[in-house]
Every structure is written in structure tokens, then in C-alpha cells.
Design brief:
By secondary structure, this protein is mainly alpha-helical. It has a single domain (2-148), classed as Orthogonal Bundle (MetI-like fold), CATH 1.10.3720.10. Helices cover 74% and strands 0% of the residues. The chain has 9 helices and no strands. α2 runs antiparallel to α5 (71-87) and α3 crosses α4.
């Protein structure tokens, strides 16, 4: 974390949205790729071969066969990456400043040195949790399908 801060500081990106976006991308992309590899490995190779025999190129076989089959996995992975970025506190507290304060940092700043106003703090925490809850409820079917995709080998 310290080398990352030094790199961001040397690039003069501290207290910028670009630093936060780049940090979340660098941290979230490897886990996202790792999860997605499992979904793509569960696509039967016979389907790709059948598409190639039918005249598809590798590129079109990927987009017409594999991607539609792993759509639930893409949705599940996307929601997990979104939740990770939405709730991330550590990177924001180090890289963000007054101009780029994220919601978890804003809620943290509501805590005073001598007194904690619990009602506004609880209300703010509930409000920043609502988008994640609503998004999860809207795409719940895809999440369940994506998380159980390939769980049982037959």
C-alpha cells in the first residue's frame, strides 16, 4: 500500500478521481478475471467446435456462444466487483482528499472527537447501503444463477 501511495504521489494523482479509479481497477481486475476464468472453463468445448464447423471465426464463436452462456457469471462477478469498490474504505482514506471524498469516508468523517451522533450516522450508513441492496434485489436471479454456475459437475 505504501509503494502504491508513493507511485500515485509521484504521478501527482493524490486527491483525484483517476487515482481512485486506477486503484480499484488494479485491485479488482485480477480477482474478477480469476472468477471469470472459472465460468469460461465450464463452457463445453464442443459448443465452440460446433460453431467453428458452422462457419464462425474464433472471435464470433466467443461472442455468439461463450459470452451468452456465461452471462449469469458476468452479472454475479460484476455485482461482487461493484460491492467491493462501493464499500472500499482503505484506498479512499489514503488516496482521497477533500475533493474526492467517497461515501464511506464521508460517513467516517461524521464521527466527532468528543461525541458521536448515532442517529445521523445510522441514517447515512443506511442511505449509502441502499444502492447495493436495490441493485442486488433487481438482479438477484442472475446472481444466484451465476454463483451456482458450474457448482455441480455432471
Amino acid at each position: 500500500l505504501i509503494p502504491w501511495y508513493i507511485l500515485v504521489r509521484n504521478l501527482r494523482m493524490v486527491d483525484t478521481y483517476q487515482a481512485l479509479i486506477l486503484t480499484h481497477l488494479v485491485v479488482g481486475l485480477p480477482i474478477t478475471i480469476w472468477v471469470m476464468i472459472g465460468f469460461f472453463e465450464d463452457v463445453p468445448p464442443d459448443l465452440r467446435e460446433a460453431a467453428l464447423i458452422d462457419g464462425c471465426t474464433e472471435y464470433s464463436a466467443f461472442w455468439r456462444v461463450a459470452v451468452p452462456l456465461v452471462k449469469p457469471g458476468v452479472v454475479a462477478t460484476a455485482i461482487l466487483a461493484f460491492i467491493f469498490s462501493w464499500n472500499n474504505f482503505l484506498f479512499s482514506v489514503i488516496l482521497a482528499g477533500r475533493n474526492t471524498r467517497t461515501l464511506p469516508i464521508a460517513v467516517f468523517n461524521m464521527i466527532g472527537y468528543e461525541e458521536i451522533s448515532w442517529a445521523p450516522l445510522a441514517a447515512a450508513a443506511t442511505i449509502i447501503t441502499l444502492p447495493v441492496i436495490l441493485l442486488t434485489l433487481v438482479i438477484q436471479r442472475h446472481i444466484v444463477t451465476g454463483l451456482t454456475f458450474g457448482a455441480v459437475k455432471g
